[in-house]
Amino acid sequence: MKKTLVLLASVAFALFMLSSCNSEPKPLTSGQWTWDFFGVAQTYQFNDDGTGAYINGEDGYEFTYKIEGDSIFISQGEDDIFGSENYAYKIDGDELNLKGGYLGISDVTYKWEERK
């Protein structure tokens, strides 16, 4: 009985480890990317046509974006008083990490989820 339990525990552990390995990265434009900032969802939605939306709780804005290598440039357009924000970005499985932004001080990891 003890050997059977040890074998089952070993198999369960092995399956868990295999499932927790990094999966294929989610495409930037699939779903949406969300980070919880003190209980308020901060969400990016990227579209295939180079447009997107940033949703901050009940507020937000639309933007355009351009990707060059491992950088993404996000601009709010004519109303953007700071110009486009430049982020180094990396997608690892279901996580999107953005580093940089206005003043280059942001370093946030967003989790992928189905678009709402």
Order of secondary-structure elements: HEEEEEEEE
Determine the N-to-C terminus distance.
48 Å
Question: How many strands, what sense, and barrel or not for the largest sheet?
Answer: 8 strands, antiparallel, barrel
Q: Which structural class fits the helix and strand makeup?
A: alpha+beta
- The total strand number stands at 8
* Low-pLDDT windows of residues: 5-20
Strand content: over 45%
What does the radius of gyration come to? Answer: 19 Å
Give the strand order, joined by hyphens, for the main sheet.
1-2-3-4-5-6-7-8
The DSSP helix count reads 1
Helix proportion: 10-25%
**pLDDT average, as an integer?**
82
The general outline is globular
Topology:
Elements: H1 2-20, E1 32-37, E2 40-46, E3 51-56, E4 59-68, E5 71-75, E6 85-92, E7 95-100, E8 106-113
Antiparallel strand pairs: 1-2, 1-8, 2-3, 3-4, 4-5, 5-6, 6-7, 7-8
3D structure, described in words:
By secondary structure, the chain is of the alpha+beta class. It has 1 helix and 8 strands; from the N terminus they run H-E-E-E-E-E-E-E-E. The chain has one helix at residues 2-20, and strands at 32-37, 40-46, 51-56, 59-68, 71-75, 85-92, 95-100, 106-113. The chain has an 8-stranded antiparallel barrel with strand order 1-2-3-4-5-6-7-8. Strand 6 and strand 7 (95-100) form a beta hairpin. The longest helix is centred in the N-terminal third of the chain and has 19 residues, at 2-20. The chain is globular, with a radius of gyration of 19 Å. The N and C termini lie far apart (48 Å). 11% of the residues are buried.
